[in-house]
Amino acid sequence: MERFEVDILGCGSALPTTKHSLSSQVVNLRDKLFMIDCGEATQLQFRAMKLNFMRLNHIFISHLHGDHCFGLPGLISTLGLLGRTAELHVHAQPDAEKMFRPMLDYFCKELPYPVIFQAFDPKKNALIFEDRTLCVSTIPLKHRVPTAGFLFEEKPKRAHILREMIDFYQVPFSQINAVKDGADFVTPDGQIVANARLTRPADAPQKYAYCSDTSYYEKIIPIIEGVDLLYHDTTFGESEAVRAKQTMHSTAHQAAEIARAANVKKLVLGHFSARYPNENVLLTEAQAIFPNTVLAAELTCLKL
Amino acid sequence: MERFEVDILGCGSALPTTKHSLSSQVVNLRDKLFMIDCGEATQLQFRAMKLNFMRLNHIFISHLHGDHCFGLPGLISTLGLLGRTAELHVHAQPDAEKMFRPMLDYFCKELPYPVIFQAFDPKKNALIFEDRTLCVSTIPLKHRVPTAGFLFEEKPKRAHILREMIDFYQVPFSQINAVKDGADFVTPDGQIVANARLTRPADAPQKYAYCSDTSYYEKIIPIIEGVDLLYHDTTFGESEAVRAKQTMHSTAHQAAEIARAANVKKLVLGHFSARYPNENVLLTEAQAIFPNTVLAAELTCLKL
Description:
Largest sheet of chain A: 7 strands, mixed
Number of domains of chain A: 2
CATH class of the largest domain in chain A: Alpha Beta
Largest interface: A-B, 31 and 31 residues
Structural class of chain A: alpha/beta
Helix content of chain A: 25-40%
Oligomer: homodimer
Number of strands of chain A: 18
Strand content of chain A: 25-35%
Strand order of the largest sheet of chain A: 6-5-4-3-2-1-18
CATH architecture of the largest domain in chain A: 4-Layer Sandwich
């Protein structure tokens, strides 16, 4: 299996504490790094996790609250000091460029690489990025300001060749790629070897959904149906359900309800309020509804 | 002696590392807190030092490079979440308000307290703040962008009363303040008791000078003459003297030359380049010229 993991840089909510950093995580797909959100001090957490700054080319910002984006200018500046020349793409809603471009123009005049803001509409479920192996699309969420989550989907993978059958039929190297893509093989004497004899099925493409910050919002369920891992806003526990509603965040109970309804494989809780000295109360509440639930924690890595 | 100390929140240079945070420190004068510079993640260091956010009313920004001010929006936002209502004063050059006001207007719409930017001219040595016990003035520095250091001077203090003499002459409580301010005491039968019999001299007012970022710049010497503590830019060692000149920073040697020429009592080196795995080489170079030198370090407190 190729690497597909999520590194948690910060999973606290608005008020950073000595325990929790502000929202940021990195999706690592086959050593290409995709950042989601970039709260203050994200660059420090990135460094603490020993991630490679040069492998980061795309940053996705869910919404324009400071705890999800105040780390951008510092990170962008640091990438310049490290000698970056490759484009950096910041995917966010249109106001992001309005707010951050003037700062970059003033503070990062000599930046040796271009920063490209790519605007998306947080109200739409739309494809906003794709490359050879990955599609990223927006998940409209329900929060105090326009907010989108992100769905990271691997593209369908190629079948695995069966080495011993390739050897047996003496399939030449030049035809291996065609076989991986599904072609039958024709031997020099005209015999057709069905593709199914030469390969075993591809690994299922994996999916990761990031849904923070949001109220309980059933409209996301069909979009995140069956994902391997769901990170869902869990700012509060049941005792703070009223406050969750007021601030348009979710409780552990609500996160678990969404996970169950969407048949996700695993749920990770995050965006914790500073009021919880530990989050086991949130974990217990969620597991009562959706057992395969874990707590996010800084500097840890979740494998899909 | 009343409390006068400097808390080091960050003493690294532009590139934050796992060892050094970005520039910020807090002058604590009798439990009133004055912040100097506010690099990214300053609010985390402030919290880590268990300083009281409510005692902070003034922030002084030396210059508009990101490593000295990118922590402002996050800190200002956090103070709001903590329920602050008192004014916060940010003393900086005029561009600071141009850059940060739009961010505050967008990201901190519901801030429950006013942020007041007070502009100063970094080219002038001028008084920019005073209260009952303290004067703060600018120290023009020489850097790639307009930059000022800051001189924190206690105001002259009042004499100490000699408790046993006060009792002996039966000085009434109502006259104690006058005696502290230098008045003689006249007994009920007309005898004049000279102030010098009733008091011992006041403690000398103390002075702290912050000079970062700057090239070697002799014009600051008369301004910082005789200060109790000097924090001076020491980004590089002698082997990087050329780079120091190019980037308009100082070497340890140069910092020590300034300290010696200005007859300061103690020198603290800071704003270290990330290239030094430890800064003992800088300390050794400085102490060869000015022995009473120490290295700054995060989360430590320097008493005047």
